[in-house]
Design a protein that fits this description.
By secondary structure, the protein is of the alpha/beta class. It has twelve helices and ten strands. Helices cover about 35% and strands about 15% of the residues. Bound molecules: S-adenosyl-L-homocysteine. The site of S-adenosyl-L-homocysteine (SAH) has 23 residues, from strand 2, helix 3 and strand 4. It is an enzyme of class 2 (transferase).
């Protein structure tokens, strides 16, 4: 199976050393007191630095993660370590935490050091979207919400094999993630996630449980990758759902009738083999799941003319268009909106498109 893999960059791995940050360690002599923010440095909202400070919620997250003895845990954005210390005190064997802000790296390092738990923690300095993750069984994290979509794409469509990810996410994003076909929130993100995993809501968390208080509430979500990989070329599937959900409230018939879209698909389908050869061994770009905008190639409703450099005839394009219409007709999906369809129905359509030589990437 051809798994779309996000590009990874090696990053610096900092192992804890016990002599580090004595002053900061003193500030964390009491783990419970450490959850309140003592304003040692300014928190950056653009980096999603909202610390979760409610001990009951922190305990609940670790409980819901159902860690097992020997588990390797991945945490993204440990911050000052409010969740990290609980993960380290759980039955899990070890925790790897990826943190972008050097001040946070120092803070969590010193705190864990003071608690005598340093031997169980590896802090990886870097951007979690770019960094190569070590092997892990479960991911448990209150992540910076700005990277929700690329991070989930990386977890589910990257090379990692893990049991579950228990993530605190922005409430609205979480609702979209667990939506089912027909829900008003159902979108490309949910479609793509459902293809490879089961996602469910565990609990809501108030914005009042964070310092500084964010504008949005949060929800804890569990994502469990399915044991068996789906029988589909995932890169092709991702490109297909991108085409379908660009305008999720139009019918598929209307979406695939647009001249610009037909032309784009025509070019892609003709060049698919060449591009696959060109890309072999090259680094692929980050997988995008459609967590924010579901926008696609700009679509206007078909009054544009063919590009000047085109080396194909209008007859060829007309024949190609007929193939698309034929596939839609035989699946009886032309009058349906993508947001109402199950993955089985979408997959049936993709298979038929592919059989007809219509390729999406
Ligand atoms: N988990 C902690 C902190 C949450 S704040 C708690 O619950 O209290 C989010 C954290 O993610 C911050 O420490 C921030 O510096 C870090 N962060 C932001 N962008 C990141 C990225 N791209 N990669 C890794 N860490 C990131």
């Amino acid at each position: 199976m051809n798994r779309a893999v996000s590009s990874v960059r090696s990053c610096h791995v900092a192992r804890l050393v016990s002599s580090r940050g004595a002053a900061a360690a003193a500030a964390f002599s009491s783990p419970a007191a450490a959850e309140a923010w003592d304003r040692r440095f300014r928190l950056h909202k653009p980096r999603g630095q909202h610390l979760l400070t409610n001990p009951r919620v922190l305990d609940a997250i670790v409980r819901r993660a159902a860690l097992r003895p020997g588990d390797a845990v991945l945490e993204v954005g440990p911050g000052t370590g409010n969740l990290t210390v609980r993960l380290l005190e759980s039955p899990a064997a070890r925790v790897s935490a990826v943190e972008i802000d050097p001040r946070m790296v120092d803070a969590v390092t010193a705190r864990v050091d003071a608690l005598g738990l340093a031997h169980k923690l590896t802090v990886i300095k870097g951007d979690a979207v770019e960094a190569e993750f070590p092997e892990f069984d479960v991911c448990v994290a209150n992540i910076p919400y700005g990277i929700s979509s690329p991070l989930i794409a990386k977890l589910l469509f990257g090379p990692y094999r893990f049991r579950a990810a228990t993530l605190l996410l922005q409430k609205e994003f979480a609702r979209r993630l667990v939506a089912v076909p027909g829900d008003s929130e159902y979108n490309r993100l949910a479609t793509n996630v459902r293809m490879v995993a089961d996602a469910r809501l565990l609990m809501d968390v108030s914005k009042r449980d964070f310092v500084p208080m964010p504008k949005v509430d949060s929800s804890l979500v569990e994502i469990r990758p399915r044991a068996a990989a789906p029988d589909v070329d995932l890169a092709e599937w991702l490109a297909f759902t991108r085409a379908c959900f660009g305008q999720k409230n139009k019918t598929l018939g209307a979406i695939f009738k647009q001249k610009r879209k037909v032309l784009e698909l025509f070019r892609r389908s003709r060049g698919a083999d060449e591009r696959r050869n060109d890309n072999a061994g090259g680094s692929s770009s980050l997988v995008r799941l459609g967590g924010g905008d579901d926008g696609d190639i700009s679509d206007n409703d078909g009054n544009d003319s063919y590009d000047g450099a085109a080396s194909f005839s209008e007859e060829e394009v007309t024949a190609f268009k007929a193939k698309i219409a034929g596939a839609l007709e035989s699946t009886e999906l032309a009058g349906k909106r993508p947001s109402k369809l199950s993955n089985d129905e979408l997959l049936r359509l993709l298979r038929l498109f592919n059989e007809q030589g219509v390729r999406f990437q």
